[in-house]
Design goal:
The complex is a heterodimer of chains A (684) and B (515).
Chain A (H helix, E strand, L loop, with lengths): L3 H25 L8 H25 L5 E10 L4 E9 H24 L6 H20 L3 H19 L6 H32 L4 H9 L5 H18 L8 H4 L5 H10 L3 H9 L6 H22 L5 H21 L3 H35 L21 H15 L5 H19 L5 H25 L6 H5 L6 H12 L4 H4 L11 H5 L13 H34 L6 H7 L1 H8 L4 H75 L6 H20 L1
Antiparallel strand pairs in A: 1-2
Chain B lengths: L3 H17 L6 H25 L8 E9 L4 E7 L3 H18 L7 H20 L3 H22 L4 H29 L6 H11 L4 E2 L2 E2 H16 L8 H8 L2 H26 L1 H28 L3 H21 L12 H36 L10 H4 L1 H14 L6 H13 L4 H7 L1 H18 L15 H19 L2 H22 L6
Antiparallel strand pairs in B: 1-2, 3-4
Helix pairs in contact in B: 1-2, 1-4, 2-3, 2-4, 3-4, 3-10, 3-13, 3-19, 4-5, 4-10, 5-6, 6-8, 6-9, 8-10, 9-12, 10-11, 10-12, 10-13, 11-12, 11-17, 11-18, 11-20, 12-13, 12-16, 12-18, 13-15, 13-16, 13-19, 13-20, 15-18, 15-19, 16-19
Classes of the chains: A mainly alpha (684), B mainly alpha (515).
């Protein structure tokens, strides 16, 4: 058993080692031998070992209430105090292992995949930044830290999606990812503000306590919950903010595996799992619908995509929808379980696609063919013989995601579907939720096998390219094998061996908490409901998985139905799906462009109208008035009045000077007249 | 050290005098003298920071000397938690500004003399506690600014300079009227410490032309200061002045001069007319909101990088107004929400400082590319990231700091402002959070257009950012990062003063009912 202090130290190391690797590599990376990749790999492997020792500690403790919290003062203005810190419990530990494991695999996989890249050192540096931020989210004990690391994760995503920024599409995708996430983050922040205003703290435990004491209630609580959930909608790419994740595939494939499949996008789910006790029943219902709808909606897009990574991207969106759905129906432990199993098999699938793309790239490169798309499955086919390891590992992961027994996905998916079914049994008006769930399950099985069949089976589509295909090097196949191994059920049910029950260390150690909101069903009630629905759900999910796989087999292997003919028959629907329901086009047309136009108008008003005419108008009016004043002053006052006096004087002077004759007699005469006049006036 | 504050104010003047004795063709010597004197001033400012007693919220290091006794005009200086960060900021940016100006080759002697004079003017405003002295420094600052833009500026420099001058002068005339009104109504004194005590009650119930005297004086002062901030609709001089001013002057303008407006509102309006705060807080929050959204939308539409950064200042200063308005939360009628008032006001003061460092960084970096490419058209670049990787990294730091990314200090101040203002101005805050999306949009879009995409071959040989330029940017980046990770060194410094200010605003707030 590890003491609290050691847990603190381990957590700090887990958090900061990748950051240190980032700082070293971003500054000195270029000058280090091998561009510093060993610094990053060393740091991440130590992180992995530390996380695994925390996991071992957890398993040895076998305490479902384990909790360890550390707090430091970040801001203290007297009344306004903010404490940051971290909180380690069993969920944290599992999540730390997921992040450091997938991150380690990505580091190793990239050794080959990114070999010779122009910004190799920066790539590794950013991976460190990402791991740091992601672990920050995982360790957070309060919504403020969570938000801080949330945004930092967004930046690392921005930097890595835009790794090949010379391509316009990559630059566009990175910006789109960041901005779409920010939309969600606005809601997140508003949620934080509502909570803080009511409760006066950011700390999770304080928030739970405050809500259970009724400091926030009613619709305000629902709004706060939905605000916080908006953050998850952005990060976990839920409808209607799902648009960024498929574009994010512009980033290097190992990055897609790490961030855009296994960990970062799961952060939204992690957030809802962490904050589950805060959500009001109304908020949870909306969450369930958003998740369920996304699960089905994204699956219908994945069917028609031909780009191997796009299929996986929409599959990720759909699977994240599953998890959100599980949170919405109250079965959030199942959501976290699926997060865990999904991280393994989805990362495996992405590495697999990376392996295929890498091989295609090489083959095309040798042919000097720059036009054929190395990611388009229509250019593949029959790779099974050339890439056996990639094929088998991907197949295992596909079995897992499709919900086939013996594999991890079967257990976690079943838990979610059972929860959904139980929810619909309690609230029959929400019958749509299980339909979303099972529908998506069937479609998932179909399109995942479509991917496998199109890539690895059938006849090679382009012979020349096929000739150059070969299995990837060990650094790439090792993560594949490891993660395919972790797609078997056994790792999640130990110490038990029943492939049809999720009972094991996970269910024993990760226990659901009661909601803090009065009126929500208790964890026990939810558990009982799930328990009852368990076998129905299992039978149904086996049925839909078989349906999906079977249909895919008939269509792509037996070619009983032609995919093209079906596409033609379904014309309109096919086009909708292929074009992702035209979301990008419509957002562009009805949101971005009008707003940009409005901004230009505002800028025009500001600069060319308001400033030029109104503000300068004051200047012009003043100038005009000055001119008038000037004219009055000069022509009126000076020229007319002042000079007028002068002129008058002059005129009088001119006239009067004639009086001055110089003759003495005249002067005497004037004097006499004067004297007489005086006398006359005095007499009068 | 005795007269520490006087030394800080007058050191640049000593530098100016020294420069006067140097022949005009020895430009290296002139630059070095300017650097030495600004450097000494910076050291004194750091020293002041170190020995400042953060637990004391009142004025410290007071100096007092007779000046014009017949009019009760005194030379009073003092520093508190509100002015100290501004003094440090000015000293830092003044020092950095010398190195930013290193390329100046036209009339070097005149340039650096005026540059140092400007420094003294700004320092004087922050440190003087006599209204007359305050006003003198306020005007002293205007003059060098006029010449610095008008002589060393861009193509439209004369137009920009005259506009800046007239606009600001208009504001200072209103301010002068308000100062005289306070002088005559509050016992014939310019002593701000006395006014802070007497003005809140002396003006109570006084009516001028049927209007409350408090409101009249508040509005006069507010317009005077708002022009400096700049608050919408008094903001249009700013983009022009920025675009035309030489880089170092833009840096000082955005980094420090804009803060004079907010500082003035807090020092004068808040301290002397607390009743007016309650009357005006709603309007202040709404004006802040308009600044945020209007500034961001204008920035989004720009194609000139410097103008974009200028409008981003309008946007960022809007947040401070919203935060300042939150002070009224602490009053009795608003439920004595001291948490909210502290977060809002603290956020506003922190935001002033952060905008100082971040916008200075932004303008320096704009200058770097302008010096090389001789244009600032965002569309005219593309792919610079592969041609100037180090420069790109610093622009990325500055842009991310500007868009309020956690880890940079701007995030903390903006978050504090939002959290503080939210309980009282819910609608305003919710709409203004849109600003954080728009911030990100205009910065990232500009970043993409300039640095991403295929490299523009025209700039294949463009020289990378040099050591001198790095020397000007790195300190600012470090401060932004350090305070972004751990803000307590800054916030602890201002906490006591904030509480004094909140207390003084709130304790008179009860009188507001009488208005």
């Amino acid at each position: 058993m590890i003491s609290g202090n050691i847990i603190t130290d381990f957590s700090l190391l887990i958090l900061f080692l990748p950051l240190i690797a980032f700082i070293i590599n971003i500054i000195f990376g270029k000058r280090l031998p091998r561009q510093g990749d060993w610094v990053s790999i060393g740091a991440i492997l130590i992180t992995l070992i530390l996380s695994l020792s925390l996991l071992m500690n957890m398993l040895m403790n076998w305490d479902s209430d384990f909790s360890h919290e550390v707090v430091i003062s970040w801001i203290d203005l007297g009344a306004f105090k903010v404490n940051l810190g971290f909180w380690v419990d069993n969920i944290t530990v599992v999540m730390l292992v997921v992040v450091s494991l997938i991150s380690s695999m990505t580091h190793i996989f990239s050794l080959e995949y990114m070999k010779g890249d122009i910004r190799y050192n920066r790539y590794y540096a950013y991976l460190g930044l990402f791991t740091f931020s992601m672990n920050g989210i995982v360790l957070a004990n309060n919504v403020m830290s969570l938000y801080i690391f949330w945004e930092l994760v967004g930046v690392s995503s921005y930097l890595l999606i835009g790794h090949w920024f010379e391509k316009h599409s990559a630059a566009d995708a990175s910006k789109k990812a960041f901005l779409t996430n920010r939309v969600g983050d606005i809601g997140f922040f508003i949620g934080i503000m509502i909570m803080f205003t009511a409760i006066g703290s950011f700390n999770f435990q304080d928030l739970f306590k405050g809500v259970s004491e009724g400091l926030v209630t009613g619709s305000l609580l629902t709004f706060a919950g939905l605000g916080l959930f908006m953050g998850a909608v952005g990060k976990s790419s839920q409808f209607p903010l799902h648009i960024w994740l498929p574009d994010a595939m512009e980033g290097p494939t190992p990055v897609s595996a790490l961030m855009h499949a296994a960990t970062m996008v799961a952060a939204g789910v992690y957030l809802t799992v962490r904050l589950f006790p805060l959500f009001s029943p109304e908020a949870l219902t909306i969450i369930a619908y958003v998740g369920g709808f996304t699960a089905l909606f994204a699956a219908t897009i994945a069917i028609t995509q031909n780009d191997i990574k796009k299929v996986l991207a929409y599959s990720t969106v759909s699977q994240l929808g599953y998890m959100i759905l599980a949170v919405g129906v109250g079965n959030y432990v199942a959501a976290f379980f699926h997060l865990l199993t999904h991280a393994m098999f989805k990362a495996c699938l992405f590495y697999g696609s990376g392996s295929v793309i890498h091989s295609m790239h090489h083959s095309l490169h040798e042919l000097k063919d720059h036009d054929t798309d190395p990611q388009d499955m229509r250019n593949m086919g029959g790779f099974k013989s050339k890439m056996p390891i990639t094929h088998w590992t991907m197949l295992i992961a596909t079995l897992a995601i499709s919900g086939v027994p013996l594999f991890s996905g079967f257990l976690s998916k079943d838990a979610i579907l059972a929860g959904t079914l139980a929810f619909a049994q309690n609230y029959p008006q929400h019958f749509l939720l299980p339909i979303f769930g099972f529908g998506a399950a069937a479609i998932t099985a179909f399109y995942m096998f479509r991917l496998i069949f199109m890539t690895f089976y059938g006849k090679p589509k382009i012979e020349k390219v096929f000739k150059g295909i070969h299995e990837s090097p060990k650094a790439m196949t090792f993560p594949l094998v490891l993660l395919a191994g972790l797609s078997f059920f056994i790792f999640y049910t130990l110490p038990y061996f029943n492939p049809f029950s999720d009972h094991g260390w996970f269910t024993e150690l990760i226990k659901a908490r009661n909601s803090a909101v009065p009126g929500n069903p208790s964890a026990e009630e939810i558990y009982q409901g799930v328990h009852h629905a368990h076998y129905t759900a299992m039978a149904l999910s086996l049925l839909v998985a078989a349906l999906g796989i079977g249909l895919s087999y008939l269509m792509y292997i037996k070619e009983k139905f032609s995919a093209e003919a079906w596409a033609k028959k379904m014309g309109f629907l096919y086009k909708l799906s292929l074009n992702k329901y035209f979301f990008d086009e419509n957002y562009n047309r009805f949101l971005y462009q009008p707003f940009l136009k409005l901004s230009r108008l505002v800028a025009y008003i500001d600069w060319d109208l308001y400033d030029k005419y109104f503000i300068n108008g004051f200047g012009h009016v003043t100038k005009f008035l000055s001119k008038i004043t000037g004219r009055i002053d000069y022509e009126g006052l000076d020229q007319t009045l002042v000079d007028g006096v002068g002129r008058t004087t002059q005129v009088f002077g001119e006239k009067l000077k004639q009086v001055q004759t110089g003759r003495l007699q005249n002067y005497m005469l004037f004097a006499l007249i004067g004297v007489i006049l005086i006398l006359v006036f005095q007499a009068a | 050290m005795n007269h520490l504050l006087s030394w800080i104010i007058w050191l640049p003047i000593l530098g100016m005098v020294s420069i006067a004795f140097v022949p005009r063709d020895k430009s290296e010597v002139i630059k070095k003298i300017a650097a030495v004197f600004s450097g000494l001033q910076l050291l004194l400012a750091i020293y002041l920071w170190r020995i400042f007693d953060a637990s004391n919220g009142t004025f410290q290091f007071m100096e007092r000397a007779e000046w014009i006794p017949s009019f009760n005009i005194t030379y009073i200086l003092g520093v508190d938690g509100l002015s100290l960060p501004m003094v440090f900021l000015m000293a830092l940016i003044g020092f950095i500004g010398v190195f930013v100006s290193w390329n100046i080759d036209k009339a070097v002697k005149g340039y650096f003399s005026l540059f140092l004079l400007l420094n003294t003017g700004v320092m004087g405003v922050f440190l003087s506690l006599d209204f007359f002295l305050f006003y003198i420094f306020w005007e002293v600052m205007l003059l060098p600014m006029y010449f610095l833009i008008g002589i060393w500026g861009g193509p439209q420099r004369e137009y920009a300079a005259i506009k800046f001058f007239l606009y600001t002068l208009f504001g200072s005339v209103l301010m002068l009227i308000a100062i005289l009104a306070l002088y005559f109504t509050c016992g014939n004194t310019f002593d701000m410490l006395v006014l802070i005590d007497t003005a809140p009650t002396a003006l109570n119930g006084m009516l001028w032309w049927g209007m409350s005297a408090i409101k009249v004086i508040w509005v006069l002062l507010f317009i005077g200061f708002a022009i400096k901030v700049p608050v919408f609709p008094f903001h249009t001089w700013l983009p022009l002045a920025h675009v035309e001013a030489p880089t170092a002057i833009s840096v000082i303008l955005a980094g420090v001069l804009l803060k004079l407006g907010v500082y003035g509102i807090l020092r004068v309006n808040y301290n002397m007319l607390p009743d007016g705060v309650f009357w005006f807080a709603g309007a202040l929050a709404v004006l802040g909101l308009i600044n945020v959204i209007w500034g961001a939308m204008c920035a989004l539409a720009q194609t000139d990088l410097k103008k974009l950064v200028a409008y981003s200042s309008v946007n960022h200063m809007g947040y401070t107004l919203i935060g300042m308005a939150a002070v009224i939360a602490a009053s009795e009628m608003n439920g004595e929400n001291l948490i909210s008032a502290q977060a809002g006001l603290g956020g506003a003061v922190f935001q002033m400082f952060n905008h100082g460092t971040i916008s200075a960084m932004l303008f320096i970096l704009v200058g770097v590319i302008y010096d090389r490419a001789h244009h600032r058209d965002i569309e005219g670049f593309g792919g610079l990231a592969s041609q100037m990787p180090i420069y790109t990294a610093f622009v990325a730091i500055a842009f991310f700091a500007g868009l309020g990314l956690p880890g940079f200090s701007g995030f903390i101040s903006e978050a504090m402002i939002f959290i503080g203002a939210f309980p009282i101005f819910k609608t305003v805050v919710i709409i203004s959070t849109l600003g954080i999306l728009l911030n990100a949009a205009y910065f990232l879009w500009a970043f993409q257009r300039m640095f991403f995409g295929p490299a523009n071959e025209k700039y294949n040989d463009i020289p990378e950012i040099n050591k001198r330029e790095l020397f000007t940017v790195i300190p600012l980046a470090v401060i932004t990062l350090v305070l972004g990770v751990y803000p307590r060194p800054f916030l602890d410094l201002i906490a006591a003063t904030l509480n004094v200010l909140i207390e003084s605003v709130v304790s008179y707030g009860g009188l507001a009912a009488a208005m």
